[in-house]
C-alpha cells in the first residue's frame, strides 16, 4: 500500500468512529433526527381532562322580561294598572274594600279633617274631635273624643254605612248595655233628610274590637249618642260612646253634626 492509499484509509476510519453514536464513557452522540424533522406528522398527547370542574352555586335567575323591557308578571296575576279582582287589596298597600261595598277611610294622620264624605253626602264632626285611622274595615271614619277633666277614658265615635230600619238598630244598641235601658230619640231635619238622634245611658258592655263577641268589659255611667241618616236603601250610622261627663260635653256638638248632613261636599 502506498502512502496515498494509507492516508485515505485513516480518514475513512476516523469518520466511522465519529458516527458510531457513543464512546466508552457513555457520552451521547449526535442527536437522532426526529420524525418532525423528517416530515412525518406529529401527534400531540391529549391533556388529562378527567378532573371535574368544581360545582358552583346556582345563581338566581332574573324573572323573564316582557316585550317592553318590564319584568313579566307571574301566570294569572292581573296586569298592573288594570282593575283588580273583587276583594283584592290595592297594590299600593291600602286597605281592602269594606264589606259594605264602600272604600275604608285611608289611615291618615290624626286630625286629618272633621268632614266625612260618603255616598254623595257630607257631614261635619265637631272641630275638637280628633280623627284617627279606623280600627275596622266596616268603618268609613273614626274619631277620638278628648276626655273631660276627671274622666278615666276618652270617647269614641264611628261612622258606618249599613242596612236595617231605625227601630231594629236602636233595639240592638240597647242590648249592648247591661240594663237594656230605654232609648231617647228625636228627629232633626238636615236639608230634607230626616235624621234620628238616639241617646242611651247605662253600663255599656264594651268590646275590645268590633264583632269580638263575648260579654265585653262593663263601663258604668256610659252615654251613647248615635244618629241614623237614610241614604237610599242603606243608612249612615254614626255612634259615639264614652264616660257620661265627656259625652255631655259634646252633646250639643253631636246634634249640630246631625244637622250638618248635606248633599255634596
How many helices? The count is 4
Q: How many beta strands in the DSSP annotation?
A: 10
CATH fold type of the domain at 117-207 and 228-257? Protein Transport Mog1p, Chain A
Spatial extent as radius of gyration: 49 Å
Q: What is the SS-derived class?
A: alpha+beta
**Through-space gap between termini:** 146 Å
CATH architecture of the domain at 117-207 and 228-257: 3-Layer(aba) Sandwich
Q: Ranges with pLDDT <50 over ≥5 residues?
A: 14-71, 77-111
What best-fitting shape do the alpha-carbon axes yield? globular
Strand order of the largest sheet: 3-4-5-9-8-7-6
Question: Strand percentage, roughly?
Answer: 25-35%
Biggest sheet layout? 7 strands, antiparallel
Average pLDDT rating: 73
3D architecture notes:
The structure is a single chain. With 265 residues, the chain is α+β, with helices and mostly antiparallel strands. It has a domain at 117-207 and 228-257: Protein Transport Mog1p, Chain A (3-Layer(aba) Sandwich). 15% of the residues lie in helices and 28% in strands. It is built from four helices and ten strands, in the order αβββββαββββααβ. The strands form two sheets. The protein has a seven-stranded antiparallel β-sheet with strand order 3-4-5-9-8-7-6, sandwiched between helices. The N and C termini lie far apart (146 Å).
Summarize the SSE layout with pairings.
Blueprint: H1 3-18, E1 115-118, E2 121-124, E3 130-131, E4 139-145, E5 155-162, H2 166-174, E6 184-190, E7 193-206, E8 217-231, E9 234-243, H3 244-249, H4 251-259, E10 262-263
Antiparallel strand pairs: 1-2, 2-10, 3-4, 4-5, 5-9, 6-7, 7-8, 8-9
